[in-house]
Fold:
Amino acid sequence: MILLTDANILITLHDVGGIPVLPQLGPTEILDVVFEECWNDCQPDLKATALDAGIVVVESELDWLEEAQDIAEGALSEQDAYCYIYARDAGRVLVSGDKPLRSKCKSNGVEYRGLIWVLEETFNKGLMGPEALCEWLALLNSHDRRLPKVEIARLKELFGCS
Structure:
């Protein structure tokens, strides 16, 4: 299974120091047009951290442009459309927290995962201890990440958070 990450997952994982776990869950790629979205003043080392972790930057193809422009609508950005096209055509598992992008994948049979999956798999594979993952959940909550309360409660129980 090769993962294709979206910018929001990298940004969120950077908040908790978790970018290195993503390639440990599976070889991980990011499209160049998406990677360019990952730089900001608050996280100036995000791109270097991703590259150091082994995330591979994939060059977008010009012939994806027309289709991306055709399917980008409403909340589905052109970069999201690129991710969808590449995941679909290359057989990648898209890792995203972006609801419109995940909806597009779901309605078209493209495999996707979200942050909850990343956290659970990190725990299940023993990549981080439960204490660290409990800290991640607390940090994510303090950064106002909109995660389903039921799933967060389930993860807290799984990790043994107090």
Summary: The chain is about 55% helix and 10% strand. Strands lie at 3-5, 28-31, 56-58, 93-95, 112-113. The first strand starts at residue 3 and ends at 5.
